[in-house]
Predict the 3D structure of the following.
Amino acid sequence: MAFFNVQIVKKYINGKFIKYKSRMVTNGMKTISLLNLKGGVAKSFTSLNMAYELWRRGNRVLLWDNDKQGNLSKAFGRYEAEQTAPTARILSGDWQNPVELIQATDYEGIDIITANLSLFGAAWNLVREGETDMTERYRRFLKAGINNQTGDSICESYDYCIIDNPPDIGINVVNALVVTDEVIVPVKIDENALEGLDIVAEQIEDAKTLNPSLTLKGVLITIYQNTDGEAAGLEWLRQEWDSAESKHYRQYKVLGRIRYSAKVAENSFVKKPIYEYSPCCGAAQDYKHFVTSYTGIGR
Ligand SMILES: Nc1ncnc2c1ncn2[C@@H]1O[C@H](COP(=O)(O)OP(=O)(O)O)[C@@H](O)[C@H]1O
Ligand SMILES: [Mg+2]
């Protein structure tokens, strides 16, 4: 059962103090994975903006960069190329105290576990060694105590964990699925949009043997251009899903639609949530509405 604490929160955002009503979910951490076998469909951008919108509603968010490219870590200015990244250390089991692996971001209440290319070697070694617990590394980490005084686990310290995955399903992604409650699949509409979605659904089915509570929540249409062509493309996708013989396609529900925004394209060097540099643009408004419909809590 979910409990909601209503409180007035004041935060310093975008150069000014903003007051808003926050309803904090206090029934434990929900873990969401952004997953698609394709790159360039806005997995990282959605992770960043969902985290921000959840945080704006008063939630504590743990971001987990599970992609060796480290784009999410870069977006929060926490990317380090040289050291073995925390995600790689978690996969290797090479850690003592979980606190050392979680970094604060510039947003108080959003923390991050970063990644870099060292994740590639860690995944490769794990598979080569074939350890029996190789799918349990992330679970072990999340269950570990975090606060020496209260003994709270990581799961009790955050309301949401958002995992930004790479465009493949390697051992690090299997580890992510083992700790995930809900998978959201960002999809960009083009003639190859369905490619790989069958495999994603199949992998999720397989991973349910390791994590029975894993759910494929649906697709989020991203980078959507409101042209006749893309509207027709979306309609075509819906029909393909409805008429497909594969039982996997039937699990895909459209959760929402994020418009293409020239502001995002123009400012790809700006490492900020879209709402902070262009609050009125379509993408900023759509992420806000998507998170409201996803959580049932507006701001
Ligand atoms: N709504 C949008 N409008 C315009 N460009 C977008 C939008 N969402 C994402 N992008 C851009 O698309 C590119 C791919 O996004 P990214 O999140 O890196 O994809 P992925 O993580 O799936 O590889 C990035 O350059 C990003 O800035
Ligand atoms: Mg990415």
User: Anything to note?
Assistant: The chain has one domain: 29-295. The pocket of adenosine-5'-diphosphate (ligand 1) is lined by residues 39-45, 71, 222-223, 258, 260-261, 264-265, 268, 283 (CB under 6 Å). The domain at 29-295 is CATH 3.40.50.300 (Rossmann fold). The radius of gyration is 19 Å.
